[in-house]
C-alpha cells in the first residue's frame, strides 16, 4: 500500500506539472503576454482538461486515512475530466496534424514548434500518466478493500 501511494503521488505531481504548463499557455495566450506567433491560443480541449486537477486532489485526499470513497471518486473523475478531454483533443487536433504532415503547413506555433506537434506530445504523456495513475489506483483500491474485509472478519 505504501509503495502504491508513493507511485500515485509521483504521477499526481507529474500531472500537476503538465496541468501548470497548460494553464501557463492559456494565461499567456489570453492575456497576450507574448505574441500569438510565439504562443498559440489554446485548443478547445484544453479548457475542460483544466478540471483534471480535481481527480488529483481527491486522490491526494484519500491517502491520509485510506479513504476508499475519495479514491473511487478520483478514479471515476479521472476518466471524465482527464482521459475524456485527451481523447477529444486528439480528435480535435487531427485535421491540423494531417495538414502539417501532408503539406508541411502549420499555422499555430509554440516557441517556434508546431503547436499541434507539441500538444500531441502533451496528450501522449498525459494519457500515460493518467493510465498509470488509474492502474495503480485500482491496485491500491483492491489492497484497501481486502484489508477492510479482513478487519470485518476479525
TrEMBL record:
GO terms for cellular component: endoplasmic reticulum membrane. Its main location: endoplasmic reticulum. InterPro entries: Jagunal. The chain crosses the membrane at residues 12-33, 70-89, 109-129. Signal peptide: none annotated. It is found in: Endoplasmic reticulum membrane. It is a multi-pass membrane protein. GO terms for biological process: endoplasmic reticulum organization; granulocyte colony-stimulating factor signaling pathway; vesicle-mediated transport. Keywords: Endoplasmic reticulum, Membrane, Transmembrane, Transmembrane helix. PANTHER family: PROTEIN JAGUNAL HOMOLOG 1. Belongs to the jagunal family. This is Protein jagunal homolog 1.
Amino acid at each position: 500500500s505504501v509503495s502504491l501511494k508513493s507511485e500515485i503521488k509521483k504521477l499526481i505531481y507529474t500531472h500537476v506539472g503538465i496541468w501548470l504548463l497548460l494553464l501557463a499557455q492559456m494565461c499567456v495566450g489570453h492575456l497576450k503576454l507574448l505574441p500569438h506567433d510565439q504562443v498559440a491560443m489554446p485548443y478547445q480541449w484544453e479548457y475542460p482538461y483544466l478540471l483534471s486537477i480535481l481527480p488529483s486532489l481527491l486522490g491526494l485526499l484519500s491517502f491520509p486515512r485510506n479513504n476508499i470513497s475519495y479514491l473511487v471518486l478520483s478514479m471515476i473523475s479521472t476518466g471524465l475530466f482527464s482521459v475524456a478531454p485527451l481523447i477529444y483533443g486528439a480528435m480535435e487536433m487531427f485535421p491540423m496534424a494531417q495538414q502539417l504532415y501532408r503539406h508541411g503547413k502549420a499555422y499555430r506555433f509554440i516557441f517556434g514548434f508546431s503547436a499541434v506537434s507539441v500538444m500531441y506530445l502533451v496528450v501522449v504523456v498525459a494519457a500515460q500518466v493518467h493510465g498509470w495513475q488509474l492502474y495503480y489506483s485500482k491496485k491500491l483500491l483492491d489492497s484497501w478493500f481486502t484489508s477492510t474485509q479482513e478487519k470485518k472478519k476479525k
